[in-house]
């Protein structure tokens, strides 16, 4: 498994909206530093809901791009990198095969999966009004976030290696389904058991507590 691209973006005003976002990412060339808060040169516009140690790096599978072409039609964003605001792109990993708590060697850095990515309206806006946000929820094609356990550096072409999987029963898709897509209604036992998942991001722990009532 190799890194296809590492993508960064700067906060800028959305076209036609009174909001700023750094969702527009572009591939960077050469080695970049991976720090506690993410990739050097990357920004987040709204730090209340983006960024921070448990959303330091966003990974979205290139595997999903053909699905989106079939679902929303041809779009120029799908011909490049970072269409979904992802920092890391690979081929061969998806939400079904990656688990919360997985640790990967990202270049010389060590990262850990902390949570899935909860979509927002900015995805629809970025794709010119296509119903991306809702489709992400129903299909669990969410991508996921890493926290950084060891700082380092990485570049496109580096090996992306799984080094530890302590929680194989908690795929990103399963956790996303329980906390975001409504699966807790038919699987309350799963929601209860999710409390054992130590690496789960604090924000999603709070969401679980809210759903438990």
UniProtKB/TrEMBL annotation:
Residues 26-163 form the MOSC domain. Transmembrane segments: none annotated. Gene3D superfamilies: PK beta-barrel domain-like. InterPro entries: Benzoxazolinone_Detox_Enz (IPR052353), MoCF_Sase_C (IPR005302), Pyrv_Knase-like_insert_dom_sf (IPR011037). It holds the Pfam family MOSC. It comes from the Bacteria. PANTHER family: PROTEIN YIIM (PTHR30212:SF2). This is MOSC domain-containing protein. It comes from Novosphingobium organovorum. The lineage of its organism: Bacteria, Pseudomonadati, Pseudomonadota, Alphaproteobacteria, Sphingomonadales.
């Amino acid at each position: 498994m190799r890194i296809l691209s590492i993508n960064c973006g700067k906060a800028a005003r959305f076209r036609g909206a009174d909001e700023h976002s750094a969702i527009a990412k572009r591939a960077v060339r050469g080695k970049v530093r991976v720090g506690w808060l993410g990739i050097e040169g990357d920004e987040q516009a709204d730090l209340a809901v983006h960024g921070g140690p448990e959303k330091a790096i966003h990974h979205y599978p290139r595997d999903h791009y053909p699905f989106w072409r079939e679902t929303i039609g041809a779009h120029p964003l799908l011909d490049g990198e970072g269409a979904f605001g992802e920092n890391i792109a690979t081929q061969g990993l998806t939400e079904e095969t990656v688990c919360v708590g997985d640790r990967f060697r990202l270049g010389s850095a060590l990262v850990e999966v902390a949570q899935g990515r909860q979509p927002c309206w900015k995805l629809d806006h970025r794709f010119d009004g296509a119903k991306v946000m809702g489709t992400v929820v129903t299909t669990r094609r969410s991508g996921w976030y890493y926290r950084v356990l060891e700082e380092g550096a990485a570049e496109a072409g580096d090996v992306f290696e799984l080094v530890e999987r302590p929680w194989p029963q908690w795929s990103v898709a399963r956790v996303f389904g329980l906390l975001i897509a409504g699966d807790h209604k038919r699987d309350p036992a799963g929601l209860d058991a999710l409390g054992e998942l130590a690496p789960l991001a604090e924000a999603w722990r709070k969401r679980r507590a809210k759903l438990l009532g």
